[in-house]
Structure formats: structure tokens, C-alpha cells
Design brief:
The relative contact order is 0.14. The chain is built from seven helices and three strands. A three-stranded antiparallel β-sheet has the order 1-3-2. By secondary structure, the protein is mostly helical. Pfam families: KH_NucS_shadow.
């Protein structure tokens, strides 16, 4: 299961739409490692001032890796996080997370990060099992 959904939130979802704030709070509580990494990347983006910031340290365990995979492989979770933080998230190799400023999505750095070439160049023997 990806998220630990409180009963009241599940009941509201069964009746209709749930707002992003409630959804993002559920993600934050359910996937704390993923939340920590993404908030860190967004904070780095804000302080560094470049078009993007990234985190490339492999998670300490498979449980944490699973959180990143669940957060970034789900269109709804990723989209909720992107709307919440006002960024575009990109993901490589089960652990490399980047946050891009919205204006940078049409730029060279974003295109390189999400390219086939970028993915291939980010491979190494120790990452092949991720």
C-alpha cells in the first residue's frame, strides 16, 4: 500500500474530490523519507538560485527507496507534490530526484536530465539492482 489514508479522508474521497492540502498531508505522513528528500531538494532550489537542484544519494534501505518510488511513480502523488511546491520533479535510477523551476522545464538542463542520454550516463554497476 502506498499511502496510509485516514478513515475520514477515505470517506471524503468516496463522496467526492479531496483538496490538494489534505492529499499532500496524507503523502507527508505516509512517505516521510520521500517527503524529506523532496522538501530538501526544493529548499536547495530556493537557496541555490539555479534552474534546478537534485539529490543523488542512494537511500539507506529498500524501505526508503520504496517510498521514493511510490511518491514519484504515481502521477497523482507526483502531481500533488509538484503543485504544492510549485516545481517540476524529475526522477532517475530509483533515487536521483531533481526539482526544476517551472521556467526551466523548457531549458537545456531539464531536457538533458530527462533524456535517454542523461539516464544512460547516470548508470553505474552499483545502481543496476535498484
Amino acid at each position: 500500500m502506498s499511502l496510509n489514508v485516514p478513515t475520514d479522508l477515505l470517506e471524503r474521497a468516496e463522496r467526492g474530490d479531496v483538496d490538494d492540502a489534505e492529499f499532500v498531508a496524507c503523502v507527508r505522513e505516509s512517505l516521510p523519507y520521500a517527503w524529506e528528500i523532496i522538501t530538501g531538494v526544493v529548499a536547495d532550489l530556493e537557496t541555490e538560485g539555479g534552474p534546478f537542484a537534485d539529490h543523488a544519494t542512494p537511500p539507506p534501505s529498500e524501505a526508503e527507496r520504496g517510498q521514493l518510488l511510490r511518491a514519484l511513480a504515481s502521477d497523482s502523488i507526483r502531481g500533488g507534490l509538484e503543485r504544492h511546491f510549485g516545481v517540476r520533479l524529475a526522477f532517475q535510477n530509483c533515487h536521483r530526484v531533481a526539482a526544476f523551476r517551472p521556467g526551466a522545464v523548457d531549458g537545456d538542463e531539464y531536457r538533458e536530465f530527462v533524456s535517454v542520454r542523461g539516464q544512460l550516463l547516470n548508470q553505474s554497476p552499483e545502481l543496476r539492482d535498484c
